[in-house]
Sequence to fold (898 residues):
Amino acid sequence: MVFTSFRLPGEFGGLAPINILPGEVAGDSGLTTETYQFFFSDFIYIEIFLKSFAVATFTTLICIAMAYPLALLIARSRKKFRNLMIMLVVLPFASNFLVRIYAWMIILGPESGLSHFINGILAFFGIAPVTLLFSPFAVLIGMVYVHLPFMILPLYTNLEKHDPILLDAAQDLGANSWQRFWYITWPQSLPGIFSGSALVFIPVLGMFAIPDILGGTGDIMIGNLIKDQFLGTRDWPFGSTLSIMLTLAVLGTAGLFSRFARTRNPV
Amino acid sequence: MIDLLQRLARLSLALLITISVIGCAQQDNSTGSNKTPTRILQVFNWNNYIAPETIQRFEASCDCGVKQDYFSDNEEMLAKLAAGASGYDLIVPTGNAMDTLIRQGVLIPLDKTLLPNLKNIHPAYLKTIFDPANQYSVPYAYTLTLLGFNSNKMRELGLPTDTWAIIFEPEYLQKIKGRVTVLDSPRELMSAALLYLGYSANDQDETHWNQAKELIIRAKPYWAAFSNTSYIREIAIGDLWVVHGYSNDLFQAALDAKKTGRNFAIDYAIPKQGAVMSLDSMVLHKNGKHTGIAHQFVNFMLDGRNSAELTNLIGSGNPNIDAKPFIQPELLQNKVIFPDEDTLSRLEMITDLNHKQRRIFSRIWTEIKLR
Amino acid sequence: MLHRQTALWIVSILVYAFLYIPLIIVVVFSFNDSKLNAEWAGFTLHWYKALLNNHEMLLAARNSLIIAISASFLATTLGTMAGLAIHRYKLKVLPILAFTPVAMPEVLLGVSLLLFFLQVLNLTLGMLSIIIAHTTFCIGFVAIIVRARLQGMDESIFEAARDLGATPWQTFHQITLPLIRPAIIAGALMSFTLSIDDFVITFFTKGVGEPILPIQIYTMIKVAVTPEVNAISTLLMLLTLTLIIIATRFDTSMLRGESK
Fold:
């Protein structure tokens, strides 16, 4: 069997904040920690990281809230429906990423039906109209929309394996439906929740297309900043530094998630 | 055996599709003419920055083809070149970007003997800071960054139209809140702020930069958006009343408003504190393959008639004296397209920053966007 | 129990609606006879015709097809091998190597590939760079699918074959390969879809002058949004929809093979 994965480590090797700049007769080359000092010199960069973490957290929580009922339903359904229902979840994922974002531009646009509807209600209460698009709200919706299937699938995989006997036993012992859920289903589903969360949280951290298209000027996240450094400001060393910071953040989060996903053993 | 055959089938199908697709794509690439010319001049230019008729005339005169790639931002152009895009014969960068290219050493010195039409250029546009001896570049066209406005609305609200104050001062801004946009360009917006504060657009003092930053942050809540392109349409349909924009875009907007019979007129003015002039020049990249044709093209564009075609089309500033007989009369009066001495003295070209400065500048811009 | 079941159903239907309504709107509005595309103005096929006349778009579509076919072919081959390797040799490091590009934020992958191509390989960005880039992240997906399939298989078949004297190649060829064939096909189709759809990685690794479909769409969205965007979106959706449906026909376990 051929080990073809050798290609992959090569890419990460490229992420070094060396002080050579393409397109400039560089007087100073070589390794330097200058970019890291710059990163920490102003709170604003940490601020953007924190913002991105916040967006990722909210997205993940909303995804959990929306995915759980659906995953539960599918897991409890009859076998022959399950595949169909799962496919229905996956199909939107098959459409182009940009298309899914663009769809929300239409829905949240200032001239859309939804906007008119909401602003109409606000006007009734005497509140000034709000713009739905180009706002943190739009970014959040976009993030949830794009990543929801990633939460539904692992959660479903986990829930499907639950043994209904436990629930029956609990019922016989007098537990009501809430207690059955909270003490039996929920703990068992935690590994699934953590897997799903990892698949949502980490990509969201690095997203730039969604804030770029649906967000206002103040809604930039780390991904946007990194992209700017490489394709705009031409500050590749600083871009690399930001990327390394993001990588560390991602590794840290992934580590946390996988630890939680494994320490829970289903009863 | 079956699966191996299936794999082979897939492979051959893939090859088949690929070949037929490439074959079709080849045909698509030819610029409409039936014969595919063997010599093709590769041009890297701004969007909409040359009249189609001009290209056709050139192709006819030189028995060659012209293929253009576009960029919408100098930074984009530089970034793409840095990322390895190559093979361009001719590029049309703006002043400071050209500065970068010169310093990178990727440009070919021009052979002036092949450019007799160079004498047509108005001396004010030659000998720029970036290329004092015009060793590498000749002027092509220029744009001014200035204020565009809905003249009816401004009269109605009693607002001045000749000062940057209307996009920076809250006392004016509150009357036009949500109806103003500024350019989504760090250098352009900061230059406008610096000019308004009385400094040069090229001021490199960090304290001045911070003052400009504060000015911008204070004004930001009144602005509708940062916009590089959509403002043209929006001011022409009446959604925006004041925009920070480029002269040829505003020329277009003014025309659109007239054509669609709006009950307002779009006008534009150079603020008294000064404005940024973006002089675009033609330069030859050393990775190009057709230096001879490239020179021919440059000389062709230096001819008055050809240079005039662009101005007539998009209202771009014209540095070519010889072009005047070919320019539409009403444009000749336009101070933006043909500025007089006094106006010229108020215009500045942006110089490039070194990478340390760019980094600080980029951080300031990030703050502006975030706060 | 019934009461809770109803509540679950209601929420689920809402979630499904949430997932589908935006896409339906995109499709419906692609027939909208209004340049501004803000409100419904009438039915027209005008935008689809405009698409056919849009040379840039057609070229972009062709380029994307070429890339997708090449990348999926390479990724399927390599990914299958990777999947087999991971299953066979239970080393911890292998899954990590293969699956990292799948879970990593795409920006990081795009940036590191960009740097890798330019500073290490000295490769000029162009179609080739995109193909390599796409192959890289598709390998992981194929490996996941193949591995999931292998995990569900009964080991005794292989033992039986070996007992009967089959060489490793024969075992692989006549037993393993046919058994994982659905997974391979599903993986290939998945790779194709991912490649055609990819935006972020393509954005970083593309060269100049060669339009690619998602990038074209992005430019259209940022510069001038007309229903033409809806039209191309609808067509793309149809394509990827068909592919995914075919893929799941072959291997339904792929849908759940997201185990890490």
In short: The CA atoms of residues 112 and 118 of chain B lie 8 Å apart. Strands of chain B lie at 40-46, 65-71, 90-91, 137-150, 180-182, 225-226, 242-246, 266-269, 275-284, 347-348.
